[in-house]
Amino acid sequence: MTVETRLVPRHRAGTTERLALSAATPEGVHIATADVPGWLDFHRLTCGTAIRRIPFAELDHWSFAPDTGDLRHSSGKFFTVEGLHAVRPEGSWQQPIIVQPEIGILGILAKEFDGVLHFLMQAKMEPGNPNLVQLSPTVQATRSNYTKAHGGAEVKYLEHFLDPDRERVLTDVLQSEHGAWFYRKRNRNMIVEVEGEVPADEDFRWLTLGQITAMLRIDNAVNMDARTVLASAPLAAAEAGALASDADLLAWFTGERARQDIHVRRMPLRDISGWRRDEHSVRREDDRFFRVVAVSVEGAGREVAGWTQPIIEPTGQGIVAFARRVFDGVPHVLAHARVEGGFLDTAELAPTVQYVPENYAHLPAEQRPPFLDAILSASPDRVRYSTVLSEEGGRFLNADSRYLIVDTDEATTPAEAPPGYHWVTPGQLNWLAGHSRYVNVQARTLLAVLTTHAAGRTPLSR
Q1: Is 306 in a helix, a strand, or coil?
Q2: Residue 109: which of 81, 146, 137, 148 has the closest Cα?
Q3: Which residues pair with 190 in a beta bridge?
Q4: Which alpha helices (H) appear in 232-381, and where do they start and end?
Q5: Per the confidence metrics, is the pTM higher than 0.90?
Q6: Which positions, given as ranges, span the membrane (predicted)?
Q7: Residues 6 or more apart in contact with residue 263 via CB below 8 angstroms
């Protein structure tokens, strides 16, 4: 018997063009762009949420395990705070780390209105956000959340992402999260197009990509989860060429991963050296990098009204930056093959600079991280993008960084990149972000800025 087969195109026609049209549409049909900040402020003022720091003893259903000292939930769900021991040729370190093996869903619904794609965005409260409420994906939920381990309400719009029609999926990729604070954490980043009537609840609004791009210029307006989903979408415009072919870039990065030597193992939290635990925190003895603390959330207006939880708090504001140069008319950014203890692979492509300057202020100039001082001392006319954005507010408290895209020159960032660094185009970075574990979460934020502005043909700087 002959089996009838039917070939389909390897690439879905028109997706990039439809996304570009949405990016070039500065106003949507449901809310004016100028009204979006006020809409977020309204939810911030009316959510009635109170966040307060509490001692570990006041955590409800959380406790330090008597045998390991690990911080765990009584249900065995959500996440644990454990210890990590990392060894590299130049040294080793120990630290607390969040272990959350379950894969969450970060999903954005897309729908055409008047021929233009709009995206259903949520005004979502997260306890770690500096301003509580930010623009978030339609669905942002761990498996524990959407299987209701907390005993709360259903996650709205979840059904569109659990078993989507594959022909309506615009992007779907597993992406890593912060390798310095999570142990091999991944989330499913999705954009799913829908047809028919999909009403927006009061906490949701349909926005064009151009409207979201405008919000990316406002401090702490668009949350990390929305940024990473947008970065994974096939948004990059055509480029005339690059300093390195895609094959050469992949070969370089594979070589970087292969040459990096790092060995990590989980260990009991109580046994990590260089850290101390008191009533309110687990912190380094020199108070650098970050600490583990506890918070109480009351009046949340979420799937559950209130809860307590441990949360990671950095000790200072970060600087996350891409150095940018134009070669033969094509923009490039300087990516870093960065090693972090929590990555599933040894390294991922990161921004040129990704550091908290305060952690290195005690070091002489020659021992400070590469390119950090060049970014910090850049003249204002070279800064093409500068916005303070916070990291994931469900696990990190007041974890914000100034995200920058800075024009540089041969004197500060030579065309012949030093070991561990490589010039890549936004298109190459967008291509790699369509696959798992190539582009880290901080680089994906800046990629979302680069590609949405380029697709909408709007300047990076105002």
Answers
A1: coil
A2: 137
A3: 107, 172
A4: 246-259, 372-376
A5: yes
A6: none
A7: 86, 87, 88
Residue at 22 is within a domain: yes
Q: Residue 429: phi, psi to the nearest 5?
A: -65, -40
Give SS3 for 368. Answer: coil
Could you report how far apart the first and last alpha carbons of the chain are, in Å? 65
Q: How many domains does the chain have?
A: 2
**Same domain as 326, residue 207:** no
Shared domain check, 441 and 322: yes
In a domain, 118, yes or no: yes
User: If the chain, 462 residues long, is cut into consecutive pieces of 10 residues, what is the mean pLDDT of each piece?
Assistant: 78 89 96 98 93 97 98 96 97 97 96 97 96 97 66 84 92 97 97 94 96 98 98 91 98 97 97 98 97 92 81 98 98 98 96 97 93 97 98 97 98 98 97 97 98 85 64
The C-alpha angle with vertex 103 and arms to 186 and 168, in degrees rounded to 5, equals 95
Please name every residue paired with 263 in a beta bridge, in sequence order, or none if there are none: 87
Cα 358 → chain centroid: 22
Residue 363 domain-assigned (yes or no)? yes
Q: Are 422 and 335 in contact (CB under 8 A)?
A: yes
Does one domain contain both 190 and 252? no
> At which of 182, 207, 231 does a domain end?
231
Q: Are both 199 and 348 inside the same structural domain?
A: no
How far, in Å, CA of 374 to CA of 407, rounded?
11
| DSSP string computed for 147-208 | TTTTS-PPPTTTHHHHS--GGGEEEEEEEE--TTTEES-EEEEEEEE--S--PPPTTEEEEE
> Is residue 202 helix, strand or coil?
coil
CATH of the domain at 128: 3.90.79.40
Distance of alpha carbon 117 from alpha carbon 184, whole angstroms: 33
Assigned token pair, 233: 């979408």
Structure tokens given for 174: 């597993």
∠ CA(440), CA(129), CA(376), 5° rounding? 55
| Residue-number span of the structural domain to which 385 is assigned | 246-263+317-455
Among 220, 154, 179, CA closest to 338: 179
Region of residue 78 (phi > 0: left; psi between -120 and 50: alpha; otherwise: beta):
left
